[in-house]
Amino acid sequence: PDLKIPKHPVLALEKVHYVGEPIAVVVAEDRYLARDAVDLIEVEYEPLEAVVDPERAIAEGAPLVHEEFGTNVAFVWQLSGGDIERAFREADVVVSQRMVNQRLIPVAMEPRGVVAEYLPGEGQLTVWTSTQIPHLLRTQLAAMLGLAENRVRVIAPEVGGGFGSKLNVYAEEALVGYLAMRLGRPVKWIETRRENFLSTIHGRGQIAEVEAAVKRDGTVLGLRYKIIQDVGAYHQLLTPAIPTLTGLMATGPYKIPNLHVQVIGAFTNKMATDAYRGAGRPEATYLLERMMDRIAGELGLDPVEVRMRNFPQPEEFPFPTASGLAYDSGNYPQALRRALELVGYEKLRQEQQQLRQQGRYLGIGISTYVEICALGPSPALPAGGWESATVRVEPTGKVTVLTGASPHGQGQETSFAQIVADELGVELEDIRVIHGDTAIVQYGIGTFGSRATAVGGTALYGALQKVKEKATRLAAHLLGEENVANVAFEDGRFFLKDNPERRMTFQEVALAAYLAKNLPPGMEPGLEATSFFEPSNFTFPFGAHIAVVEVDPETGDVQFRRYVAVDDCGRVLNPMLVDGQVHGGIVQALGQALLEEAVYDENGQLVTG
User: Fold this and answer.
1) Could you give the count of Cα atoms lying within 13 Å of 495 in the half-sphere of its Cβ?
2) Over the stretch 535-556, which tens digit does the pLDDT of each residue have?
3) CA neighbours within 13 Å on the CB side: how many for 279?
4) CATH for 113-199, options being 3.30.365.10, 3.50.50.60, 1.20.58.480, 3.40.1790.10
5) Residue 429 Cα distances to 170, 329, 398, angstroms
6) From residue 102, how far is each of 180, 211, 222 by CA, in Å?
7) Where does the chain hold its CATH 3.30.365.10 domain(s)?
8) CATH class of domain segment(s) 378-533
9) Torsions phi, psi of 227, nearest 5?
10) Does the reported pTM lie above 0.90?
């Protein structure tokens, strides 16, 4: 409520709100001439006091980022469940902690890049861009540039990573499109790494005060959160939504009946924050798991015991949380037990005590989690929580898949082809997966929020069922069988259940689908289907991770001894792709824990990079 949305011009007008905000554009034959020309531009600045600390930003008398609002409070969002006041009255102990999820920079391997071409004779604008959301971007560009949507084509080629940073509509995309129209020539802009640090969205940026109402045996009765979200200077696509995900996941994998969350968004003179790998959920996991360790320390209990005491049991699922979610399934105790078994927990604790006597510091870090994935039901995503897929079988039996998902390293081309191969019995090399071209692919929502396979893959499965249903009816006709239920499909062949020797290959049926003389009355030619899928609920994968480190008390150097991850993500379509996602997530988490932060000085200058 009371969300304040500042106007966000493509180029800054009278005021620059953060270092990195575009203020002018130069077009030249090559980038070197363009850079030389930039040096000829003189800008007169009147220095303004910057506000970079979100806590200071919302304090009385702070410099205003947007004067028209009279405050730097961008929004206030609250969530309650149960009776939080009663929980704290009945608590034996109250444990509190102030924690920071520092501001981070996604740093995808490929920076952003845009190429635009305008054909005035056709009135057609084509934009090649490194984006996670080609269709949503097309809709926005058409509105910004005053074009009909069917006159704008967005192509997202093979994108070199995103981690949420390309889940946005950026000024440069609209600007390059406009310049191509204005000049009647193709225009290209490729982001430098420094520009990437300055002008591509940042992530995290939360300061939290957390209180836990606890019984002496470690049972957590309730949690109270106050979170200040560093918004930056402007809202991007999902900026206000990210900390609400933190609030929704505030009880994590635990049976905590009482909850209150307050999130305050703070405008600052910095680049906007938005979705970055996990997008609000890792923030919640860090806050909650740190509190579990603090509770264990306060009560003299083992961190494992505290976690086990607060887990819901498998028979309690579907499990309603205090934040209003409905966890579909889970066995959280088993995940933690398996991780403890793999790491050899009891022996590690003994080794820890022995090394401590020698002056060596061995740390054993435990984290359990549940994540909200498969975004998701449309009430949670105003732009739409569905995804689309089209399956087109050619006369040769080769298959083309058009998916509204837009992968950028997740490997959906492989996993989607596997789904097709499993369902239709065709070879992987006979399957082509096309994505990211709005002139070819039906409207789709895009790839973010751990949704592409769960939602897009299910849409694909639905389209495949339609194709199989039509192909089965056609096969029955071709085999002279009136009872379609007597036709089975297995290993790429249709056959009669009561006479398996009467059979046809999938390729033979595909060819017949394009020959009108073969079709039964009322059946249209071709073998193609489109399906849209919207989940009725999120999915909630879960797991337990354990890190074993040794810390040098004199230098602070951290050496990793072991890392164990147990994750339940549901049915695994491709183990190698799943392993890659887990490995990547672990490494980025280590970066946040030990090495990374986007640091601004008091004048709003980005020091990092």
Assistant:
1) 11
2) 999 999 999 999 999 999 999 9
3) 25
4) 3.30.365.10
5) 37, 36, 9
6) 39, 20, 25
7) 113-199, 378-533
8) alpha beta
9) -120, 130
10) yes
